[in-house]
Amino acid sequence: MRFLTTFQLFDFFDTLASLASAFFFGALIGAERQYRLRTAGLRTNVLVAVGAAAFVDLAMHLAGADGSVRVIAYVVSGIGFLGAGVIMKDGMNVRGLNTAATLWGSAAVGCCAGADMIAQAGALTVFVLAGNTLLRPLVNAINRSPLNERTSEGICEVVVTADAGAAAALRDVIVEKLEAASYPVGDVELVTRSEDTVEILATLVSTSVDAEDLDRVTAEIARQPGVRHVTWDVSTGD
């Protein structure tokens, strides 16, 4: 067997140290994700870190540093596909971006461990954990702050409830009045609510809005024949 002639005890211990460190650091990252009940938890982060370490370590033994660099490039792109699987779109909201980024960090930790840079893998683990824990209060504080429509660029929707018979004509009027006020319309959708009621959803091109100015425009739209109710709302697009 070729294994008996090629097996090197010290090389095996080197690989074992790389895999063990990747397992340990991946478990630290994954435990925090598991505690917060995220999609990619303890086992996923450990497997990503250990898998990345195994591929890089294998390349190091077969082709040296040049080979490991090529493998790391493939690991980075491969984790991108894995991360895409945990990203979900719910209406206008996107969930899972932080989980996908954490998987990317676990892969980086594994690559460091596989390249025998165990101290660097430990330091990177600390930074990943800090990003997911120490920054959380700051994120919550920013999210609780009121949205300033003048300085924030977001997705603005104008919703008009109108008589079904007047919907076609109102659609053109809504677009005309919004664009005249320098609020370009990206999309207009008609949603039937009942036999005689229709909702017209005008989505503006991502831009900053002046609340008072947009209130004035919607008030003009509300005075049109057939209009029952008009409202608008802004949400961030990130």
What's the mean pLDDT score? 84
Counting helices, strands and paired strands, the structural category is alpha+beta
Number of helices: 8
Helix content: 55-70%
Strand order of the largest sheet: 4-5-3-6
- Beta strand count: 6
What radius of gyration results from the CA coordinates?
27 Å
Q: So what's the overall shape?
A: elongated
Task: Please give the alpha-carbon distance between the first and last residues.
Answer: 57 Å
Main sheet characteristics: 4 strands, antiparallel
Helix-strand sequence: HHHEEHHHEHEEHE
Low-confidence stretches: none
Count of structural domains:
2
Assembly state: single chain
Assess the beta-strand content as a share of residues.
Answer: 15-25%
Subcellular location: Cell inner membrane; Cell membrane
Protein name: Protein MgtC
GO cellular component, one term: plasma membrane
Domain MgtC/SapB/SrpB/YhiD N-terminal: 19-139
Key phrases:
238 residues; alpha+beta; Alpha-Beta Plaits; 2 domains; four-stranded antiparallel sheet; two-stranded antiparallel sheet
Description:
Pfam families: MgtC, MgtC_SapB_C. Keywords: Cell inner membrane, Cell membrane, Membrane, Transmembrane, Transmembrane helix. Its main location: membrane. Belongs to the MgtC/SapB family. By secondary structure, the chain is α+β, with helices and mostly antiparallel strands. The protein is built from 8 helices and 6 strands; from the N terminus they run H-H-H-E-E-H-H-H-E-H-E-E-H-E. The strands form 2 sheets. The protein has a 4-stranded antiparallel β-sheet with strand order 4-5-3-6, with helices on one face. The longest helix has 43 residues. The chain folds into 2 domains: 143 residues, no CATH class; 81 residues, ACT domain (Alpha-Beta Plaits, 2-Layer Sandwich). Strand 1 and strand 2 form a beta hairpin. The N and C termini lie far apart (57 Å).
